[in-house]
Amino acid sequence: MGRPVTLETIREAADQIRGIVARTPTARSRTLSEITGADVVLKFENLQFTGAFKERGALVKLLSLPPDVRAEGVIAISRGNHALAVAYHSQRLGIPATIVMPRVTPNIKVEHTRSFGAEVILHGEGLVDASAFALDLARERKLVLIHPYDDLDIIRGQGTIALEMLEDEPGLDALVIPIGGGGLIAGNAVAAKGIRPEIEVVGVEAARFPSMKQKIAGEPVECGSATLADGIAVRQPGELTLPLVRELVSEILLVDEAALEEAVLLLLEIEKTVVEGAGAAGLAALLRNRERFRGKLVGLVLSGGNIDLLPLASVIQRGLVRTGRLVRIRVEVPDIPGGLADVTRIIGDAGGGIVDVVHQRAFTRLSLQTAEVDFAIQARGLEHVHEVLDALIAAGHSAVLT
């Protein structure tokens, strides 16, 4: 299971991976600080070669294996970041790697994992099915299982993030860290508390997957079916991580899907960095708990950036709608030549950009002389949207947001 997780052994792990795993930037965000009321420090783990922090723990674990074990090979169960990390560093070290992924894993992640030379086996509808199959396969082939979080070497490797953050920002008041199985927060809590005992370590889970919070409270674990933060959508926290989280983490906050979407969009728009839902969980927690962190120097771990393009596109579109930069207005238009042109002129004069028009005659209760038209409009925000509506109403048109 590896060496005990202490500040000393985490420092040893840092020495092992130095020059191999990227020392990612730690940077203050002036704009996010203004938005949240905290003094925000970001750790860009999404800039690792495979796009996530998982490389740290995976490499420490692989380096701990004796030569005869390496020759036999390793196996891992994952639907994303852990798979990429194990496959990449196994290839570098010449270790045969088998990765078992659920059948529902996005194809791009499957192909990226294969590109690092791993044998990828798709099995089961979820991680529970995939795990059972992988354990049987490990026994059959005499492979060592590289667990994504419930392993002391994995935990030590993840803890190297806090070493770097506190070296760059020694005065941090709090670390806010996503929780899935608990490897990331456990390792970093040990490291951070070892260096700066007064620092507060706060965990964040998706509200749909509050398994660690429920487990610590002694409650039955009840999770939802899906979340944007799929990287922390874990139903069973680690047996090794649980006591560390219970001892060292002061609180676990839950964030809803809207907060996760808002955080992903803010990081893209303000920091110009792509972060997956799990990686944005820390910022989502700040957005939903402004008073709790107001005035504090808070470190956020952007744990990964491997978000698929379709969900990212949806997050962007929905964010534009939420902030009034993309809206739909329904207007009653006289069904006569020039009627539609008059309305489009009014919208254009008010500064609205028309991106889509749906002209409806049949599915309406309006009179035959009137058509119902839905306009998708780009605007500068909610105030500007109301300026467009006022201009239409002032010209005698019935216009409402839909």
Report on the structure:
- With 402 residues, the protein is an alpha/beta fold.
- Helix content is 45%, strand content 19%.
- It starts with 6 loop residues before the first helix and ends with a strand.
- The protein has 3 domains: 196 residues, Rossmann fold (3-Layer(aba) Sandwich), CATH 3.40.50.1100; 92 residues, Rossmann fold; 77 residues, ACT domain (Alpha-Beta Plaits, 2-Layer Sandwich), CATH 3.30.70.
- The relative contact order is 0.12.
- The strands form 3 sheets. It has a 6-stranded mixed beta sheet. A 4-stranded parallel beta sheet has the order 5-4-3-6, with helices on both faces.
Overall tally of structural domains: 3
Q: What name does the CATH topology of the largest domain carry?
A: Rossmann fold
Corresponding CATH architecture of the largest domain = 3-Layer(aba) Sandwich
- How many DSSP-defined strands? 14
Summarize it:
The protein is an alpha/beta fold and 402 residues long.
Topology, element by element:
Elements: H1 7-17, E1 26-29, H2 30-36, E2 39-44, H3 54-64, H4 67-72, E3 74-77, H5 81-93, E4 97-101, H6 107-115, E5 119-122, H7 127-141, E6 144-145, H8 152-158, H9 160-168, E7 174-178, H10 183-195, E8 200-206, H11 211-216, H12 241-248, E9 251-255, H13 257-270, H14 281-288, H15 290-293, E10 297-302, H16 309-322, E11 326-334, H17 339-349, E12 353-360, E13 370-378, H18 382-394, E14 399-401
Parallel strand pairs: 2-10, 3-4, 3-6, 4-5, 7-8, 7-10, 8-9
Antiparallel strand pairs: 1-2, 11-13, 11-14, 12-13
Helix pairs in contact: 1-8, 3-5, 3-8, 5-6, 8-10, 9-10, 10-12, 13-14, 13-16
